[in-house]
Specification:
mainly beta, 63-stranded parallel sheet, six-stranded mixed sheet, 10 helices, 93 strands, rod-shaped
Length: 1082
């Protein structure tokens, strides 16, 4: 620079330098030494300047480093860019004691002034106020003829110097050229005393060349083109209020040569863009609100808030208020301080222009409004947004949003724009009270140590945010919004704490990675998908999930603690050994719960409700909890319902290859709809638990293992399964169906209130009670009763063996009060009763069909108080007996026919053959029914030998025969004379029982008792169509005729009595109480 000046005028330079040195001989100055080789900033005495200048030094500080010193920057401006000032003749061109070459003017108003300082900026040096008011332009002093750039240097319009040198040098030289004029030399108010052009015809070094930083920075649209005729121009015209720029007006077609600006426009310099530096913050400025409008109203209209501090600053004093109004372009001449309201600094346009400061009670507030609509408030709004750009994500570092230098909130919104790729940062703190944004046009992954939210909303676009240390939210109602390509990930070792309510919204994902911990102590809501591989702790309040939740990994844990609650409206999936844990909390899975892959659920004193619950290869344990589910489907899983736990499934439970255990008397399970247990599944009951399958239970290839349990069931269907019950277990069902099922009961009770059927099963009962209150049907099964009782109302038994192993065991056909003519029991072919116990038949008709066997005791007897009807007519009407049993072609065991009961033997049936010695003649006989034990027909009991003809097959009793009742013989064919054997029994003394035998259907038939030759067997014989060879037969006939006389007399008396009796008192059947039942029968 100095060498360029030397080419033109060394005398001028020397004059000003010597003058400055003489004035400032004792002062020290800062210079840059060795700028081209080893830049050093030093301070020297002003008298030493010439020596250092000869070595290439220059005034001012060196650049920040050597590399920066070697960068070339163009000197792009000349004083010719500015128009000549048109100022009043009395205008003072001085700033203090310094004469300034550039000023501000308003040609329309005819005023000039030095310029304005930006409020909030440090006080500038003299002649350093470059900002002009709205509508005013920068101009050059009229008596100054600037040197053109070609005269300053080598003729090149783009003179270069070292970066940083021009600006600081220019500032120093402003002080060099500005002499302190004597009072006589100071301009006077008189126009005649204004400086003449001749006095300042020689330009000062300070104004050649004119540097760009003297002009304000252009405020142009982001997409503004700074070129003119293809070249980038460093100065332009701008219109501040319209946010409009252009290169300049004029007729020149040379690049960057149109320098004229339009009315209301000022010349500005092109901003220098540092791609690595964040954009400057927008300055907080004052403005005039509309009449009657508060600052809150004015700022709210543009989406921001009033800046209370600046409003207070504007109201510091009337002079300060006037200064701000002049800065805003308002001319004021009168004003003062008033206490009418709290509107602060105001402007009134009435002549000659008023600055009015209103401070009621010494306060100026944002909310106060002016009553006079012509009076306008001075307002200032908070800058809403702070923006930072990081194309290189490796340079993120620590970021503290929306704070000013004093660590107070300066803006309410902030955005960090991220480049593509991945990067690591430090600690991010969002202090923006309204909005914090992390945005990337393409997907970016940012790993931060810490993220602390202190604002209302956090917005993530195209950003995967990874936290390695701590994520903290302390703002109640905070919203974290994620787009589809964004996610928040808490990584291993990281902790996320939500001490205030938060909402996760949008369409992204929240991920708690393995080894991380996420805790909630305030109500929060997840409207995005949630993936948990670490610890997810709900410590109080409620956490709601409105999107799917996934727990996966051996370290994944969702822990709902005392007093807390989770509500999930979409499906929650738990897999890969992850765990849900609850202690005194509440879980509500409205969207369903899916568990798989060794996942675990452990609940203590927790309330859980699930809509649809499925589990595969999982483990669940409930203790002191209340568990409800609409559907419950378990596969290869283990469920323990512990002490104090009540579980209810409204839609039915399915357990496939799974085990469910109820462990105590306070453990309950209820399934309302039909349930299934399949593929090796097990239901275990212990300790007095209670299970209710009210909708029924169907098992296939599975096991019910019950000890001290109570089980209630609708329809119990077991196929290829095992039912084991012991230790006072009670099983009740409305209906029972067994197929290929094994039942083992010890000291248990089994009741079917409906039918019970089994096919191909094996059932063992020890000291147990079995009750079937409806029909019992058994086919191809095996029963064993030891010390047990089985009571059925009706039965049909085919090819089934029922073994009553001891005398205390019984099979009771109750008949439920059915009449003797009502069929209540049927033993078909292959049905076998055996053992030492008893088959007891109470009421109704029992039919013993061919091929059936009763190898145990048979008792045909009603209960203790037996009612019997004496038959009005002596005939074989078995409906008048109860119970009644019929036997045909089968075997029975020891049989007792009690009073009122009947056993009917169909002699037309065939069972087997036996060789008998009848009165010395041995023959082979075909039997109809074989009794393998003693037969006892008690008093009032009836043995009926039915369908007797000449081809009758006898009833064989291998045992004694006791007849205290009667025998009736019904002959169906007496047309052929014959002697037939009716029955056989074993006895050494063949007592004549013919007096208790009545023959029907044959008037010429007689009965007799004969013995075997060795007197070991007795035979009841019937002679058909033959007169007895016994001489006493005639006497018996005579006695019969004599007996008719009293009978006729009795009949006549009876008829007379009927005629005189009240018809309502007539009884056709006589009812009497029997002497007693069978000994030992209950």
């Amino acid at each position: 620079f100095f060498f360029g000046m030397a080419k033109r005028s060394w005398s001028t330079w020397a004059f000003f330098l010597c003058l400055w040195l003489s004035i400032n001989a004792d002062e020290r100055v800062t210079i840059c030494k060795n700028p081209d080789t080893n830049p050093q900033t030093i301070t020297i005495a002003s008298l030493d300047l010439p020596a250092y200048f000869e070595q290439g030094a220059y005034l001012g500080r060196c650049p920040r480093d050597a590399d920066e010193a070697n960068e070339e920057v163009p000197i792009v401006c000349s004083q010719m860019d500015l128009p000549v000032c048109q100022c009043p003749g009395t205008y003072n061109w001085l700033d203090g004691e310094q004469l300034c070459g550039t000023h501000c003017m308003s040609a329309e108003e005819g005023i000039c002034y030095l310029g304005r300082e930006t409020y909030g900026s440090p006080v500038t040096a003299q002649c350093g106020k470059w900002e002009c008011d709205f509508g005013h332009v920068r101009c050059r002093r009229p008596d100054f003829e600037p040197v053109r750039a070609s005269e300053c240097g080598d003729g090149d319009l783009s003179i270069s110097s070292k970066k940083g040198q021009v600006g600081s040098l220019h500032r120093q030289l402003l002080e060099i050229n500005s002499e302190s004029p004597s009072p006589s030399e100071s301009p006077s108010p008189s126009p005649s005393e204004s400086p003449s052009p001749s006095e300042f015809s020689s330009p000062s070094p300070a104004e050649c060349p004119y540097v760009c930083e003297d002009l304000p920075v252009c405020q142009c649209p982001e997409d503004y083109d700074y070129t003119s005729f293809g070249e980038v121009c460093d100065t332009h015209c701008m219109e501040q209020d319209e946010y409009y720029c252009h290169p300049g007006k004029g007729n020149s077609f040379l690049p960057c040569s149109r320098l004229e600006c339009g009315p209301g426009q000022i010349r500005c310099r092109r901003p220098v863009v540092d791609p690595t530096a964040p954009p400057p913050r927008n300055p907080r400025t004052f403005f005039l609100a509309r009449g009657g409008e508060s600052c809150d109203d004015a700022c709210g209209a543009v989406g921001t808030v009033c800046d209370h501090d600046l409003v207070q600053e504007a109201a510091l004093s009337p002079a300060h208020c006037q200064d701000i109004l002049e800065h805003l372009g308002k001319t004021t001449h009168l004003g003062g301080l008033y206490e009418d309201d709290s509107t602060g600094c105001t402007y009134h346009p009435r002549a000659p222009g008023w600055y009015e400061l209103f401070k009621k009670d010494g306060q100026s507030t944002c909310s106060a409004r002016t009553e006079d609509l012509d009076r306008l408030r001075v307002c200032a709004c908070q800058n809403l947004r702070e923006e930072r750009h990081f194309d290189d994500l490796s340079e993120l570092g620590d970021q503290n949003f929306c704070l000013d230098a004093s660590d107070t909130v300066a803006t309410v919104q902030g955005r960090v724009s991220l480049g593509t790729g991945a990067g690591n940062g430090g600690a991010f703190t969002c202090n923006c009270v309204e909005l914090c944004e992390l945005h990337s046009l393409t997907e970016s992954t940012v790993s931060l140590t810490n993220y602390e939210n202190r604002g209302a909303t956090n917005d993530f676009r195209g950003t995967i945010l990874q936290i390695t240390v701590n994520f903290l939210n302390t703002i109640a109602g905070a919203v974290f919004n994620f787009d589809a390509s964004s996610a928040l990930e808490i990584h291993s070792g990281g902790v996320a704490s939500f001490t205030a309510a938060a909402t996760f919204a949008g369409s992204g994902v929240f991920r708690a990675r393995e080894g991380s911990t996420v805790s909630f102590s305030s109500a929060s809501t997840f409207q995005i998908a949630t993936e948990v591989s670490g610890q997810f702790l709900v410590e109080s309040e409620q956490v709601s999930f409105e999107e799917v939740v996934t727990l996966t990994g051996s370290n994944a844990l969702m822990d709902v603690r005392s007093g807390s609650r989770i509500v999930a409206s979409r499906t929650v999936t738990v897999s890969s050994s992850s765990e849900i844990r609850g202690t005194s909390g509440t879980m509500q899975f409205d969207g369903g719960l899916s568990m798989a892959s060794s996942s675990v659920m452990n609940l203590t004193s927790t309330t859980v409700s699930v809509s649809t619950w499925s589990a595969s290869s999982s483990t669940m344990s409930f203790d002191g909890s209340t568990v409800t589910s609409q559907t419950w489907s378990m596969s290869s899983s283990t469920v323990t319902i512990g002490t104090g736990t009540a579980m209810s499934v409204s839609g039915g439970a399915q357990l496939d290859a799974s085990t469910m255990t109820l462990s105590s008397s306070t453990s309950t399970f209820t399934s309302v709809q039909a349930s299934t247990l399949t593929n090796g599944g097990t239901i275990q009951g212990r300790g007095g638990c209670n299970m209710q399958f009210t909708g029924g239970l169907q098992t296939t290839s599975s096991t019910m293992d019950l000890q001290q349990s109570t089980v209630g069931c609708g329809h119990l269907q077991m196929s290829s399964s095992t039912l084991s019950a012991s230790s006072s277990t009670t099983v009740t069902a409305s209906q029972v169906t067994f197929s290929q099922t094994t039942v083992q009961m010890t000291s248990a009770s089994f009741t079917s209130s409906g039918t019970m059927s089994d096919d191909g099963g094996s059932l063992t009962f020890t000291t147990s009670t079995i009750v079937v209150t409806s029909t019992f049907t058994s086919t191809s099964s095996s029963y064993s009763l030891t010390g047990s009782s089985m009571t059925v109302t009706q039965h049909t038994i085919t090819s089934t063996t029922i073994t009553l192993t001891d005398v205390s065991s019984q099979f009771l056909l109750d008949g439920s009060g059915a009449g003797g003519g009502s069929l209540v029991g049927s033993l078909a072919s292959g049905a076998v009763f055996s053992g030492l116990g008893f088959f007891r038949h109470r009421t109704g008709l029992l039919r013993l069909l061919a091929g059936s066997t009763i190898g145990c005791g048979l008792q045909l007897s009603p209960n203790a108080q037996i009612l019997r009807r004496t038959r009005a007519l002596q005939q074989t009407d078995l409906t008048t007996t109860n119970p009644a049993a019929t036997a045909c072609g089968n075997s029975i065991g020891s049989t007792t026919v009690a009073s009122g009961a009947s056993l009917s033997i169909d002699t037309s049936c065939s069972f087997g053959t036996e060789s008998w010695d009848v009165a010395g003649t041995t023959s082979t006989y075909t039997t109809s029914v074989a009794a393998t034990g003693a037969v006892d027909v008690q008093s009032g009991g009836l043995l009926v030998l039915n369908t007797v003809s000449t081809s009758t097959n006898p009833f064989s009793i291998t045992g004694t025969f006791t007849l205290s009742g009667s025998i009736e013989v019904l002959v169906t064919d007496s047309s052929t004379t014959a002697i037939v054997i009716l029955m056989k029994w074993d006895d050494t003394s063949c007592t004549d029982i013919t007096s208790s035998v009545t023959v029907y259907g044959c008037t010429s038939c007689t009965t007799s008792v004969v013995a075997s030759s060795t007197a070991t067997s007795c035979y009841l014989r019937l002679s058909i169509g033959m007169t007895s060879s016994d001489s006493n037969d005639a006497w018996w006939g005579l006695l019969a005729l004599l007996a008719l006389i009293p009978c006729a007399a009795g009949l006549a008396w009876y008829c007379c009595r009927i005629r005189t009796q009240d018809p309502e008192e007539i009884s056709y059947d006589e009812v009497e109480v029997a002497d007693g039942g069978y000994e030992g029968y209950e």
